[in-house]
Amino acid sequence: MLITLEGIEGAGKSSQVQAAVAFVRAAGRACVATREPGATDLGRRIRRILLDPACAGIDPGAELLLYLADRVEHVQRVIRPALARGQVVICDRYVDATLAYQGAARGLGAELIERLHAIVLGDWRPGLTLLIDIPVEVGLARAWGAVDRGERSGAETRFENEDKDFHERVRRGYLDLAAREPARYCVIDGNRPPGEVARDIQAAIAGRLHIPCPDRGGNG
Predict the structure, then answer these.
(1) How far apart are CA 38 and CA 46, in angstroms?
(2) Is 8 in contact with 93 (CB distance < 8 Å)?
């Protein structure tokens, strides 16, 4: 099964992906972590362009096609082979990120993006999408704090440099997607301690994979 984690900048997806993979492996299931953009050799080159603040003026259509190129390579070289081996794949961002960022925030619309993905990827939808939802101001403060502490590279801050209205559109785009597909989406309050967020994520994964649910006690 493909499981994806989504959210605005600073939502905490990357650390939660690692916790989720450890949880699934502890339950005896083979599991791999991956991310977009940048999970392949070509993808890493594309990532440098997409996240570089110097590329702030890139046309939204060109931005969309770069993400699509990264995704096709990622699906063909990483995701589909892992699924064929019977592994659970947990991915930090996937198609829903494009629908929220380029579709909603950039104004390209969902129809174009879904049509392009259907052409090159066929059935692209994950089995479960976990949306870590936080207020924009909280997410951006976290993201820039990580850059200031050296935990993230300042060379990958093109989206952090967008104005607040852009990030509000991204957040609304995600929540609209979740409302459209409640059977696939699980919205998780990310404005809490990481341990509490992790337990909710793990409970949702446990329910979908039919593995033991984590202990819900304590505050983490």
Answers:
(1) 7
(2) no
Cα–Cα nearest to 187, from 179, 9, 124:
179
3-state secondary structure 39-56: CCHHHHHHHHHHHCHHHC
Question: Of 213 and 74, which is predicted with more confidence?
Answer: 74
Q: What is the pLDDT of residue 152?
A: 85
Question: Residue 192 contacts by C-beta under 8 Å, 6 or more apart in sequence?
Answer: none
Sheet holding 88-92, edge to edge: 31-35, 88-92, 2-6, 128-133, 185-189
Token readout for 8 is 């605005």
| Residue 217 pLDDT | 46
Q: What is the pLDDT of residues 144-187, one digit of tens each?
A: 998 899 888 889 999 999 999 999 999 999 999 999 999 999 99
**pLDDT tens-place string over residues 32-54:** 999 999 999 999 999 999 999 99
Q: Residue count of the chain, please give it.
A: 220
Calculate ∠ Cα 194-214-136, nearest 5°: 25
Instruction: Report the alpha-carbon distance of residue 120 to residue 90 in Å, rounded.
Output: 21
Q: Which residues of 82-108 are buried (b: 16+ CB within 10 A; e: fewer)?
A: bbeeebbbbbbbbbbbbbbbbbbbbeb
